[in-house]
Amino acid sequence: MILQNTLLKNIEKSEGLARLWTVLPTARLVGGSVRDLLCGRKINDLDLATPEPPERVQELLEAAGITNIPTGISHGTITAIINREPYEITTLRRDEETDGRHAVVAWTSDWKEDAARRDFTINAMSLDQNGVLYDYFHGQEDLEAGHVRFVGTAEKRIEEDALRALRFFRFYARYGEGAPDREAYQAIQDHLNWMDGLSAERIASELLKILAGPRVMETLRPMDKCGLLPHLLKRPDLVSLERLLNCDAPVDSILRLAALYPDNLDVGVQLKLSNADKKRLTMMRGEDPVLELNMSDHEMRRLRFKFALQSILDKSWLTQAQRQGHPDQQWSVFREALSGLEQPVFPLSGKDAQDAGIPAGRFIGMWLQKGQEWWMAQGCVPNKDECLTYLKNHPLQN
């Protein structure tokens, strides 16, 4: 009854779900929404499964005036759009062929057969519109026990899709308690070579989610011990990451990645991260900026002028982790002071040089550079008139 009441409250909040159940009365909520309903967590995506083939789903949605997009029709998925909210509706499936990355599927009307192809027992439950829970593999018991385990045999599930090894640890971080499932751990340890076919993008997606999630060290330690972490990317440094976490650094997967792989200069390239993230990692690895807690206001303004605030803050956390490895009020004050400073902007331009009678060409650059060096030496404080006065009194030497 508690489950039914919880479900009814969510139906009241979701006009779209109520409409879809009118169109597809035998459809059920599946996956993460059921799992999170059971453990009282916030529900993000309301995904449904149905025994109706995808073409029939489209017909029914269109007849009801519901916008739909064939986002993954080859795998049986139609996305319905109601009040700008997406709802994925997937036809029940069974795997015909798998190669460790992709699966060839066929439609089925057997709910248990569809549940049997899912990764973990806690993700294999389904819930109908009457609040009846269908749990073929004891997922509710596992959820209550904090036991993340594969549906069927761990080895078979990982062989079907090697990314499930990483997904196992991501779900273990969020829903697990105690040691990782022994069968899953052993299967991952015994078949590390299965990970070699995974794309960098898929590895990055899961690894960054783990780094941004809960129980980071409790999750990475068994990943490291079973060989998965060093197999994917060489030379992880758990001590360095733990020191960063002990500083109460912000939840930031890229910052944590830099701490986890301080000696792997190519980790951003290896994971095929975005250019922005690769640039950020490169800045964190550079010698500059050099940070000291006793910096004067002038030094801090120069720092803000030369480097982006994000780069300085990143470097401050890594420096604090390296030097102290624990919370430090001085570093907090330092970051607060930096963040409170306005970005200094050098007040002169090429037009100012021309107006001052500086000949075109390299002399303009030399004039601006001389002015900027003096402006920076004064703590990036002088205004335009003061810079012009200085340059007038200190002309370029021929």
Structural notes for this entry:
The model has no long low-confidence stretch (mean pLDDT 93). The chain has 22 helices and nine strands. It is 52% helix and 10% strand. A seven-stranded mixed sheet has the order 3-4-5-2-1-8-9. Strands 6-7 form a two-stranded antiparallel sheet. A hairpin with a 2-residue loop joins strand 4 and strand 5. With 398 residues, it is an alpha+beta fold. Among the domains are: 140 residues, Beta Polymerase, domain 2 (2-Layer Sandwich); 50 residues, no CATH class; 44 residues, no CATH class.
Strand arrangement across the biggest beta sheet:
3-4-5-2-1-8-9
Under the CATH scheme, the architecture of one domain is 2-Layer Sandwich
Tell me the distance between the termini. Answer: 90 Å
> What is the general shape?
elongated
CATH superfamily of one domain: Beta Polymerase, domain 2
- Report the structural category: alpha+beta
User: What about the largest sheet?
Assistant: 7 strands, mixed
GO biological process, one term: tRNA processing
Protein name: CCA tRNA nucleotidyltransferase
Cofactor: Mg(2+)
Keywords: Magnesium, Metal-binding, Nucleotide-binding, Nucleotidyltransferase, RNA-binding, Transferase, tRNA processing
The gist of it:
The chain has 398 residues and is α+β, with helices and mostly antiparallel strands.
How would the blueprint of this fold be written?
Elements: H1 2-13, H2 15-23, E1 28-30, H3 32-38, E2 48-50, H4 54-63, E3 67-72, E4 77-82, E5 85-91, E6 93-98, E7 103-107, H5 111-116, E8 126-127, E9 133-134, H6 139-145, H7 154-160, H8 164-175, H9 182-190, H10 200-211, H11 216-225, H12 228-232, H13 238-246, H14 253-260, H15 267-270, H16 275-285, H17 297-306, H18 309-323, H19 329-340, H20 350-355, H21 362-377, H22 384-393
GO molecular function, one term: nucleotidyltransferase activity
Pfam family, one: PolyA_pol
InterPro entries: Bact_CCA-adding_enz_type3_sf (IPR050264), NT_sf (IPR043519), PolA_pol_head_dom (IPR002646), PolyA_RNA-bd (IPR032828)
